[in-house]
Design goal:
Four Helix Bundle (Hemerythrin (Met), subunit A); Arc Repressor Mutant, subunit A; 72% helix; mainly alpha; 2 domains
Length: 210
């Protein structure tokens, strides 16, 4: 089944926002999206309303949709909320550790490839998927949806708010590989401790943001 015009418009704009091709503060017009996707303005308007409800854009009649900038405070708030969800999910995901380890291992390799190319956008997408899989393994669909929205919002954080350096990518890679190893050897205490320290590092980094 082909996606509707509104769905295609929604996915096009949302992907652009998360990838940074529509940066924070950018004004997206219905005409531009209509031309890019090859649809009329009506489904574009529907897509932008949906994105406004998700907090990604703010609509201005007859002008367009402003990509909502992320403040330093919101960046920290998002990371704190992430930590709460992941801290709850990690021990509950343990019961499915064997399947989870096999699910996560290829993502570590994907992250390593993106790191070697210096592709921070693709690296962040793979990092997001890695953590989403752990949360999903906890079996709470409501929390999984909440977590997905938090990670999407985090991807909107501009480089001026939250810089991702090669050093940070290396830290993330090392932690993620270790998490997979701990799942495989059955070290629950080590897995939960590393999950906690991994999240604390991100929180500590966010506290230095102005």
């Amino acid at each position: 089944m082909h996606a509707s015009a509104a769905q295609r418009s929604y996915e096009h704009v949302k992907t652009g926002i998360l990838a940074g091709s529509y940066p924070p503060g950018d004004l997206i017009t219905e005409g531009l999206v209509s031309e890019q996707v090859g649809v009329s303005r009506t489904p574009v308007r529907e897509a932008l309303l949906r994105l406004e409800a998700e907090g990604l854009v703010r609509l201005y009649p007859k002008k367009g949709a402003l990509v909502v900038p992320v403040s330093a405070k919101e960046a920290r708030d998002v990371l704190e909320a992430r930590a709460l969800v992941e801290g709850y999910a990690a021990p509950r995901a343990w019961a499915d550790r064997t399947a989870l380890a096999e699910d996560l291992a290829p993502l570590v390799e994907v992250m390593r490839e993106h790191r070697d190319r210096g592709d921070m956008v693709a690296f962040n997408q793979a990092d997001r998927t890695f953590h989403e899989r752990i949360v999903a393994a906890a079996g709470n669909d409501v929390l999984a949806r909440l977590y997905r929205s938090l990670r999407e919002r985090q991807l909107c954080i501009s480089s001026e708010v939250m810089r991702v350096s090669l050093e940070r990518m290396d830290h993330a890679l090392a932690d993620h590989q270790r998490l997979v190893d701990l799942l495989r050897v059955g070290d629950k205490d080590g897995f939960l401790a590393l999950t906690d320290s991994h999240l604390r590092r991100a929180l500590d980094q966010s506290r230095g943001i102005r």
